Amino acid sequence: FKLLNKYKPETAAEKKLRIKKEAEAKAAGQAPVATAKPSNVKFGLKHVTSLVESKKASLVVIAHDVDPIELVMWLPALCKQQDIPYCIVKGKARLGCRSLA
């Protein structure tokens, strides 16, 4: 899914570079540059549930072939209750390989 490509996790090298720039700016006496930690894809049923309940999720993507289905069948109702958009995609394997690759 091309939608999720910009939410790839930050690599170790990118994180090191971001933190180094912040430290250099602080050492030079400049005002600290407010660089936000980059957004990325969160996964795991428990973690996503807590994000939805606290209204910190911006989009929930659910795979259609979860087994047993009872694990996620209540998630769309929770998203509707919290006014968080969700979508159901075909195949958890496709979802996993596309979002993090």
Q: What is the count of helical runs?
A: 4
For the largest beta-sheet, the strand count, sense and barrel status come to:
2 strands, parallel
Overall pLDDT confidence:
82
Gyration radius, rounded: 18 Å
Work out the helicity level.
40-55%
| Secondary-structure class | mainly alpha
In short:
The chain contains four helices and two strands, in the order H-H-E-H-E-H. The chain has 101 residues and is mainly α. The chain has a two-stranded parallel ribbon with strand order 1-2.
Describe the structure.
The longest helix is centred in the N-terminal third of the chain and has 16 residues, at 12-27. The chain is elongated and about 55 Å long. The N and C termini lie close together (10 Å). The chain has helices spanning 12-27, 45-53, 75-81, 92-100, and strands at 60-63, 86-89. By secondary structure, the protein is mainly alpha-helical. Helices cover 41% and strands 8% of the residues. The chain has a two-stranded parallel ribbon.
